[in-house]
Amino acid sequence: MPLDIVTTNHFVGGDDERAVLTSYLYGFTPQSEPAPSTFGATLVADLVRTESGWQFEVLRLSIPWIDGDEARFAKWSIPSPEGWKIGDATPSIVSELDSPWARGIPDLDPHDAVRQVADFYSRYSWAIDQGDITLLHGCFTEDVFGAFPPMGDLQGRHEVIGQMKSFRRLWPWMQHFGRPLQITVDEARNTAHLVVGRIIPQRPATPNGQDLYGAHYQLDLRREDDTWKISRFEYIPGWITATER
Q: What pTM does this model have?
């Protein structure tokens, strides 16, 4: 069947000999009737440099959800909507073991603050979507505050993560596809502002082909212990294009 695939939420870490890459991807069947079938996936891959160049050593793919004609994906192993049940297969990706951040993969360029801020959203979305609360802990400052719909206005890391953990339990197949739209870093590289567009795979573009976002984030970040963390969070629902943020 015809299939279009788009990747988002990219991250690459490593050195000259070994590397790890992660991304989200969504695919859709553009010519299906009566409506396109869509799916989302998470990818993590280990690469090693050989005499023949870079090669995959380990490749893991998880597909947490599908939308549309399920018969098209009948041979795929999709998590149960109601959560785990006896007989379910072991997840192909276990964040606390497989993610680059859990394994301490070195940064490609520790001096490129703009790229690190862009990478931050991949780390944050991976943490909440994979239910990796330890990784999520490192995404917020202790004094974080902001607007977290539908949970409301929250104050402090304890309240933020407590609410997110409870919220995530009811939505185990969630994926926050996003694209950085604007990045501003101060001269001292200690604070930054990040605007991220939330991509909805079922409606990623306007009729004329312009990128479309179902919501966007306005995030203030602070660097603590060489790690970028959210100090102010604002999630703003509503359809926008990149020029309307």
A: 0.92
